[in-house]
Amino acid sequence: MDHGKTSLVKALTDIDTDRLKEEKERGITIDLGFASLSLDDTTYMGIVDVPGHERFVKNMVAGAAGIDAVMLVIAADEGVMPQTREHLHICDLLNVKRGLVAVTKTDLVDDEWLSLVIDDIRSFLAESFLKDAPVIPVSSQSGAGLTDLLEALTELARHEEVRNRPDYFRLPVDRIFTMKGFGTVVTGTLMAGTVRVGDTVTVLPAGIAAKVRGLQVHNESRSVAEPGFRTAINFQGLDVDKIRRGDTIAHPSFFEPSRRMDVLLRHLPTAKRKLRHRAPVRFHIGTAEIMARLHFVDRNDLEPGAHTRCQIILEEPAVAMAGDHFVIRSYSPITTIGGGHVLDPIAGKIKRFSAAGIDDLRLLDQGSTTEKTQTILRRAGMNGISLKRLVTRTGIPTGDQQGIVEDMFARRQALLADREERRAVAWPVYEDLMKNIMAIVSAYHKKYPLKKGMAKEELRISLGAHASQKLFNKALLDLESRNLVTVDRETVAGAGHGVHLTEDLETLKEDILRRYRESGLSPPATKEILEQAGGDKKKSANLLKVLIDQGMLVKVSDDMLFESGILEKLREDYKARLLEKEVFEPADFKELTGLSRKYIIPLMEYFDKTNLTIRVSNGRVLRESQKR
User: How far, in whole angstroms, is CA 294 from its chain's centroid?
Assistant: First the structure.
């Protein structure tokens, strides 16, 4: 149905926004059209001409993403139509607050009919955000009313309230094409932040990196584009088939695609039936349309006119920020049934009727900025969250968010786990991490009482994949400063932990040491000791480790241990001979010890490793003599 939108835009801007052959043949707008209007020397307005026909409402929703004001176009010979109502609902759900009404085709009706139509329009708008908006009769053919419309548009632009736009650049893509000699170009309404020629950006959700080659704002080349403007971006080295409508262009590392979002959902009072848990819907956010399912947390269904906090589970990942508005349309027949705004764009699964989950949603919706920050920090767990991601998940502007986090640091409600990434962790989560470390170490001591401690890496892995290395190291330092653990280069032990042998193990210990002392420089292989010790081989092996840790035995190779006193005596004799002889060959070592090659080579290599000697060809020299 032709409301005269495109003709009106052409009359205002001299731009025909119907660019498709089918649009010109059928006389209706099918896809988005774009134009720019210069209102005066300093005021420009970007116009998105959206389809009016009910079959193309999904394109209309994509075009409405990021707009600041609406010009509702109603044909005087038709009046308010069903799709007019749907478009107004969509603008309301997308949080559009201002606008005006243009009544077109006034040249086709008489004054009495026009008066009736205007009265009907005002009645229709009485409960909407356009209840006080100007209603301006115009004719694109005769030009009647166009001057009044331009004045009203200028007034609207001058008094347009600046949205509280977070400062992270993002642009939802609504059009993609190629230009000969330039390559891939995308267009969209720049929702937030700024982008400059030369910037490296990311195409989400795919995560493809691309470089900005050129920018246009209102068909003029610019070096920088700012929020609120229709923007075209020319990319360097990005194939056109790598991007599609619904994608988001953003600076790297700020946004994370997600398949699950926490939302506040409004069900339109005009809807014909209840919304049920798990109902399939068409989810529109930014310029994207994605099939999704509703996940109700506190109920089984939602009556028309009611609202609830719930989750949206998406078939494909989407990019959003807390506070972003969305629209949902029914699966079949396709009609707008509701919408709302995002509470957490990267939500985890919430169990139905979970008191904790329901309270989280309440805090994300109605809590203070500190409560929202605390909730997201707690949800981030041991992995923590960077300030960048914290801003996107709370919707709190960067400066305000920084102040909240700094205050939480001062109050020990959070801590800075990584200075480089500006990554924060909730203090209760950190306390739980330290408690878990203590519990794991304690359980380890009970299971392995003969071991001096637990290997650091084994301990970190036992905590789960979410504990970062930096946070883990910080927790160990804090626990050590509280005298709760002792930490060395490789192991962690509970404070006061020591190896206490039972009577049978004390007997076994003395027997093992006796055998090593009696064997002198020709000790038995380790496996031989284990086989002859009797009892539990695993316990005996652990006892050998204890004797090594306590310095009673020295490990020369994997299967060769020496009693420490015997090895120390050999070290002194070896050093004395090294002082007498310039280079000490294996044959000299045999003369010194009377040992076979089986022992000579491992022992000479051991003294190399322990910094007594340096290998020179096949012989050895005293290390300290080389420093002179």
Answer: 22
Top pLDDT among 298 and 40 is at 298
Does the 359-425 domain belong in CATH 1.10.10?
yes
Residues 523-531 have a mean pLDDT of: 84
Q: Is 234 left (phi over 0), alpha (psi -120 to 50) or beta?
A: beta
Tell me the two tokens of residue 377: 């920090």
Cα–Cα distance for residue pair 294/283, rounded to 1 Å = 10
What pLDDT band is residue 433 in, cutting at 50, 70 and 90? very high
pLDDT at 1: 42
What is the dotted CATH code of the domain comprising 429-494? 1.10.10.10
Question: Of 284, 204, 288, 280, whose CA–CA distance to 245 is shortest?
Answer: 288
More confident residue, 120 or 57: 120
Phi first, then psi: give them for residue 459, nearest 5 degrees: -65, -45
How many C-beta neighbours within 10 Å does residue 180 have? 5
- For residues 337 and 327, what is the distance between their CA atoms, to the nearest angstrom? 8
**Phi, psi for 608 (deg, rounded to 5):** -65, -50
For the record, the structure tokens of 101 come out as 């009404």
Please state the domain extents for the chain: 5-158, 170-250, 258-358, 359-425, 429-494, 507-628
What's the mean pLDDT in 349-376?
97
Contact predicate 118/126, CB 8 Å: no
Residue 553 in this model has a pLDDT that exceeds 70: yes
Share in percent of the chain as helix, strand, coil (round to 5): 40, 25, 35
Cα distances from 69 to residues 23, 156, 406, in angstroms, run 25, 8, 37
